[in-house]
From TrEMBL:
Membrane topology summary: Multi-pass membrane protein
The protein's name: Histamine H4 receptor isoform X1
Keyword Transport: no
A Gene Ontology cellular-component term: plasma membrane
Keywords attached to this entry: Cell membrane, G-protein coupled receptor, Membrane, Receptor, Transducer, Transmembrane, Transmembrane helix
Main location (coarse class): membrane
MF GO annotations: G protein-coupled acetylcholine receptor activity; G protein-coupled serotonin receptor activity; histamine receptor activity
Any one GO biological process: inflammatory response
């Protein structure tokens, strides 16, 4: 945070401008995440495993705009003394919300990792509501344990230090430990999920290309099958001619009848085999197309997760590094403040990285806007 001497360097006009911009960011964070929460409430089709984790992320990001930024604006711009109790409350809530947002990203990444690698078992877990809720609650518990206890203990370490910053900022190695659990472990986990998914998809794609049969999977395979194994009406002219040297064991009529039955059975067997081959070819083609569609879907999820890793690293790396480097320096430079704000901007970007890009959420948003239009028209 900024200390008292640092904030006095701003002119009144600059303070008003910065307060307006900060309020605008807080409102954008609230609005973006509120739409996600409302879409989840309105559309029941969104209530499955992965979207519950998106809801948990939206809740943590929403309260960043409701609590963290509004209390920070008067403190940093107008030198508002929060007091010990309010300062401790704000620090715990802010670190809890930011860490919960990070852990929710890890949970979403792990969920997509399970979807790509174990699709069958993943579908069986869709209805396990108790496990889903347990994972959501575990995110908040772990997020509190990372910073909550050390903030409560370290507040007594501050003597004449009037800044609303955690007391453990006086000890660099405690910052390093908390940054390890808050940033380094999550970013390594998300990167691992992403790289393993890409490797699995590449392996699956190369294996599918080797096992595929162009003749069976080609668009004209069914037509070729029909032409190649067409069952023509049986005619007596197609009967094989008897050899003149054959000893007549039966009468001429019996020989013709026996030869006719033999040829008829051969023709029926040929048609049966041909129809089975055609059905097998068709089923193989449908299965191959289904696997191809699932592979494309998995690749899309992996790409979105790769974007997530990049944005998460950009938003959190500067602050995690600067907090350790500048732990004993007061006042903090401008670039520390920019790095601090990047964490909150991640809460603004998250709704666009996740739900707002999904077709199901987009349909739910349209449904919400249509409901609003109908209510406005009915009132007018």
């Amino acid at each position: 945070m900024l200390d008292t001497n640092y904030t006095n360097n701003f002119s009144p006009g600059t303070c008003i401008t910065l307060a307006f911009l900060m309020t605008l960011v807080a409102f954008a964070i609230m609005l973006g995440n509120a739409v996600v929460i409302l879409a989840f409430v309105v559309d029941k089709k969104l209530r499955h495993r992965s979207n519950y984790f998106l809801l948990n992320l939206a809740i943590s990001d929403f309260f960043v705009g409701v609590i963290s930024i509004p209390l920070y604006i008067p403190y940093t711009l107008y030198n508002w003394d929060l007091g010990d109790k309010l300062c401790t409350f704000w620090l715990i809530i802010d670190y809890l919300l930011c860490t919960a947002s990070v852990y929710n990203i890890v949970l979403i990444s792990y969920d997509r990792y399970q979807l790509v690698l174990n699709a069958v078992s993943y579908r069986a877990k869709q209805t396990e509501i108790l496990k889903i809720v347990a994972l959501m609650v575990a995110v908040w518990v772990l997020a509190f344990l990372v910073h909550g206890p050390i903030i409560l203990v370290s507040q007594s370490w501050k003597k004449d230090w009037k800044e609303c910053e955690p007391g453990f900022f006086l000890v660099w190695y405690i910052i390093a430990i908390t940054s390890f659990f808050e940033f380094l472990v999550p970013v390594i986990s998300v990167a691992y999920f992403n790289m393993y998914m890409y490797w699995s998809l590449w392996k699956r794609g190369s294996l599918g290309r080797r096992q595929s049969h162009p003749g069976l999977n080609s668009p004209d395979s069914s037509n070729d099958c029909g032409h190649s194994f067409k069952c023509r009406p049986f005619s007596r002219t197609s009967l094989p001619e008897l050899k003149e040297t054959e000893v007549p064991l039966r009468s001429e009529k019996q020989r013709r009848k026996s030869s006719f039955l033999h040829s008829f059975r051969t023709q029926v067997n040929t048609c049966t085999i041909a129809s089975k081959m055609c059905s097998l070819s068709h089923s193989h083609s449908v299965t191959h197309q289904r696997e191809h569609l699932e592979l494309l879907r998995a690749k899309k999820l992996a790409k979105s997760l790769a974007i997530l890793v990049g944005v998460f690293a950009i938003c959190w790396t500067p602050y995690s590094v600067s907090a350790i480097v500048l732990s004993d320096k007061h006042p903090k430079p401008y670039w520390y403040e920019i790095a601090f704000w990047l964490q909150w901007l991640n809460s603004f970007v998250n709704p666009f990285l996740y739900p707002l890009c999904h077709k199901r959420f987009q349909k739910a948003f349209l449904k919400i806007f249509c409901m609003k239009k109908k209510t406005i028209l009915s009132q007018s």
